[in-house]
Design goal:
The protein is built from two helices and four strands, in the order βαββαβ. It is of the alpha+beta class.
């Protein structure tokens, strides 16, 4: 399994509560698909959010987002630095 970064463009109409609720929906969808959602960070100022998920493929991450209608700009396999 690998670590993937989901990149999300936020709309100006979204609130922080909307972003948090979206991540909760995504976590449930990801777990149902056998993925491991790790964390998410966001900037309302820059209008971007990023989530980290452990999965076998970027396609699995895309499908888990699609299931709960959360749009993605990109999914990128990344390496973690400790």
């Amino acid at each position: 399994m690998a670590l993937f970064l989901g990149v999300h463009k936020l709309s100006q109409e979204m609130s922080a509560e909307d972003v948090e609720a979206g991540f909760e929906k995504y976590k449930q969808s990801a777990r149902e698909a056998g993925l491991t959602p790790i964390s998410a960070v966001y900037s309302m100022e820059k209008e971007f959010a990023y989530c980290q998920t452990i999965a076998n493929s970027a396609q699995q991450v895309r499908e888990a987002h699609e299931k709960v209608e959360i749009p993605l700009e990109d999914v990128v396999e990344v390496q973690k630095l400790d």
